[in-house]
Amino acid sequence: MDIKELLDTAKLPEKEVRICLRADLTADFEAAEADLAEAQRAARAANSLNAGEDVHAAAQRVEEIRAQMAAASATFRLRAVGRRQWTQLYADHLPREGDNRDAAAGFNRETFFEALTRACIADPQISDAEWELLADVLSAAQWDALVDAAWEVNRAGVDVPFSSAASRALSTTAPASERPEGSESPSSDSTDGNPQPSTPTTTAEGSPRPARKRNGTKSNKH
Prior knowledge:
Blueprint: H1 3-8, E1 14-20, H2 25-46, H3 49-71, E2 73-79, H4 83-92, H5 100-105, H6 112-120, E3 121-123, H7 128-137, H8 140-155, H9 164-173
Antiparallel strand pairs: 1-2, 2-3
Helix pairs in contact: 2-3, 6-8
């Protein structure tokens, strides 16, 4: 292992959060879906061409609103800060005197999370003025989604992931020449008329690894 080569290509963990900045359209979308369901019920009862046209129009309205919401959505990519910057954030946001919850967390809960999230947003590039505006237009739930992502990229453990779905897909779609011996179905032309026992193909290396615990415990945020 060439540690210098690994260090030269090292990257900090990242996570993406997609947020719709036209959350008001959620109510319009739900109303349009309700109209679509009603049109579908009417079409089934009437069984007429005109009723089918009503369903089509209602479905188009749902898709129009969905497209508006997609166009008004922004994807935020958050990147973990380095260990030294993380330590500095703690030093810059010391627990408030007399606040037991701050003392338990190890930092000022009112200021630390906003500073951490601001530091972690790698894309898009946001000016200070835009950041202030963003903090005002997001709902509490949308804000928490960003804060949670900022915490997770810094405190969650990182390991080489295992995908059981990909493993299963590869084992069932691989060409016959690449399949392990014994993975074929029992032959129907055995001499004694009884199927031959199949050979197990699952190995310890192919089994999903148990999930690892996160490093650190997420603090309560208010």
